[in-house]
Design a protein that fits this description.
single chain; 9 strands; three-stranded antiparallel beta sheet; globular; six-stranded mixed beta sheet; alpha/beta; disordered N terminus
Length: 282
């Protein structure tokens, strides 16, 4: 049986003075009860910094989606601590939790999740309307953001008039329109061809990373690894490695273009510890 280190993450490297956006310590999540209990997360330790694009990779069923669901406050953890910009979802009353999530987090999904009967501008405006912004202001801001992602001439179209890549750009605009501080993306390029996936990542890297915003991208797509500041590898419900080079995970043959992760000057490498001995998971 393999043993995974239970040490806490080491201190941040000298000069890495950016605040922590997401802090996870010893996160445990179980499904089922009694003999049917399955441990999905086994003591996750992870920091994501402000202004960072963190990718989470690993085999199917290793716990990536469960982890981002805990981070985003849509799934309760069973043990451990998790804060997002200093707030713990589990400590918030239900209404305040919903409000904080709606204001602070944007979601980008693999399947786009656009409403087919609404125009693009109306789709993008949904988070603003949910946050109490009046319709006229919401539509105007949505149109401006659609122009930023290259769809300014399509604001009155419905999603069925768009290609997959264009629909994903609408989904990104919807995730950004309420100016959240954290964007969570679940397989944003898996349904797209290489060129279109690259364009989507260019938008995420270029538009979404403005200011102090942080991104967490769950992916199996090694073609986009070079967009990350750091890559967290998960297996059996633990984070077992955090690297800044794709070749450190899979070797030069499977690394993203150029091998080394394209990391801007402000990005800072950081390693996180992992957790107890792995076993069954989802």
């Amino acid at each position: 049986m393999s043993v995974v280190s239970t040490q806490a993450p080491p201190p941040r490297p000298h000069g890495a003075d950016r605040p922590v956006a997401v802090r996870c310590r010893n996160i445990v999540k179980n499904y089922g009860v009694g003999n049917a209990t399955v441990r999905a997360l086994r003591g996750i330790d992870l920091d994501v910094y402000e202004g960072e694009l963190m990718m989470m990779v690993g085999p199917s069923g290793c716990g990536k989606t469960t982890l981002i669901s805990v981070i985003a406050g849509v799934l309760d953890r069973d043990e451990g601590e998790c804060t997002v910009f200093g707030k713990d979802f589990s400590a918030l009353p239900s209404r305040e939790r919903t409000r904080f999530r709606g204001q602070t987090i944007g979601f980008v999904f693999q399947s786009f999740n656009l409403i087919p009967t609404l125009t693009l501008a109306e789709n993008v405006s949904v988070p603003l309307l949910l946050n109490g912004v009046d319709r006229r202001t919401a539509i105007r801001k949505s149109c401006d953001l659609l122009a930023t992602v290259g769809l300014g001439d399509r604001v009155n179209n419905t999603p069925n008039k768009l290609s997959g890549g264009q629909q994903q750009r609408v989904a990104i605009a919807r995730a950004l329109v309420h100016d959240p501080r954290l964007i969570v993306c679940d397989e944003p390029t898996s349904a797209l061809d290489h060129e279109t996936g690259g364009k989507v990542m260019d938008i995420l890297r270029g538009v979404a990373m403005g200011g102090k915003r942080s991104l967490i991208v769950v992916t199996h797509d090694n073609r986009i690894f070079h967009y990350a500041d750091r890559i967290a590898h998960m297996d059996d419900g633990v984070v077992d490695r955090i690297v800044t080079s794709a070749k450190d995970l899979y070797g030069p043959d499977l690394a993203a273009p150029g091998g080394d992760v394209a990391r801007p000057a402000h990005a800072s490498p950081h390693s996180a510890g992992s957790a107890p001995t792995p076993g069954e998971h989802t």
